[in-house]
Amino acid sequence: MLLNFAPDRADHGCTQANLQRVTYPNICEDFVKDMQHKLLKSLFLAAGLSSTILSAQPVTLDFAPARDNTLYERAAGDLSNGSGENLFFGLTGGNAGMVLRRAVIAFDLSGINPGSVINDVQLNITVNMVPPNAGSFDGTVHRLVSDWGEGSSIAPGAGGSGTSAAPNDATWLHTFFDAQFWNTAGGDFSPASATTNLNNSTGTFTFSSPQLIADVQDMVNNPGGNFGWIILGDEGDAENARRIASRENQLVDSRPVLTIDFVQGPPPPPPPPPLPGTPAAVPALDNLALVILAILMVVSLLIIQRRGD
């Protein structure tokens, strides 16, 4: 790519005769402004070309949850476990009231540019507790369509019974306790799902399907609609719920992980240059670009001064 740093003297009146008459610091302002504009434009073009070349290569990144929580079925809707070490999903046994648990989880995907191509998605969870007579079932992950919160609540003991919800916690009734509500008790989510079979043992299980790829693709292209997913267990068989590690779990390797393989799209284009006569905003340049800019400006000023002498 050829970068043109030559000033357009015909447009700005910086002719050879004018340059011979100017002395430092009374330099031709139009000439300098033209040089600044061309330099910044060329730097942006070079940065854009480099990012386009680099973005053509597929990359695989792991994302940690930005928030997670458990929805505990309860008429009062006042239980949660926002900052607890574990999440729960499925139907509890008779001793716990035969009530439902649902896990909600979301990830910050702002590091992936809108327009990127999502090739593959895997959601990995670690089951760390199963009931004594647990059976296998197909767990499902559904995209949430309402925003929700994670408060400071921490359930005691194993955490299966929850605790009093803290402000902004998600509960069975609330998206943000205690003023905002789900449209449907138990969470607002899409019927489309990704499925994986959970047997009666502990360990890591992976959700991976075209539906998850479609979910992430839309979340990346429309960040305002990224509310994460809800995990449902066996909701028809009592005493077959599951406990999984949350993002706060002390065992870092057991925390949920979202693995995404994608081709990074180009970054958003820089703002257009200001109209003539309007103050120009200073672009956000990295240190190397600022050094290059300073060197070229000094060189241009020395050339002008020498011609003026």
Report on this model:
The protein is an alpha+beta fold. The chain has helices at residues 9-12, 16-21, 29-55, 210-221, 287-308, and strands at residues 58-63, 65-72, 79-80, 86-91, 100-107, 117-129, 137-144, 163-164, 174-176, 180-181, 189-198, 203-207, 229-232, 242-245, 257-263. The strands form three sheets. Strands 1, 2, 4, 5, 6, 7, 11, 12, 13, 14 and 15 form an eleven-stranded antiparallel beta sheet that branches. Strand 4 (86-91) and strand 5 (100-107) form a beta hairpin. Helix 3 (29-55) runs antiparallel to helix 5. The two termini are 35 Å apart. Residues 1-27 have low confidence and may be disordered.
Produce a short descriptive summary.
By secondary structure, the protein is of the alpha+beta class. The protein has five helices and 15 strands. The strands form three sheets. Strands 1, 2, 4, 5, 6, 7, 11, 12, 13, 14 and 15 form an eleven-stranded antiparallel beta sheet that branches.
Distance separating the two termini: 35 Å
Count up the domains. 2
Rg value? 29 Å
User: What is the overall pLDDT average?
Assistant: 85
The total of beta strands comes to 15
- Helix/strand-derived category reads alpha+beta
Residues in helix, %: 10-25%
Shape, please?
A: elongated
Strand residue percentage: 25-35%
User: Which residues form runs of ≥5 with pLDDT under 50?
Assistant: 1-27
Major sheet attributes: 11 strands, antiparallel
Give the SSE string. Answer: HHHEEEEEEEEEEEEHEEEH
Counted by DSSP, the helix tally is 5
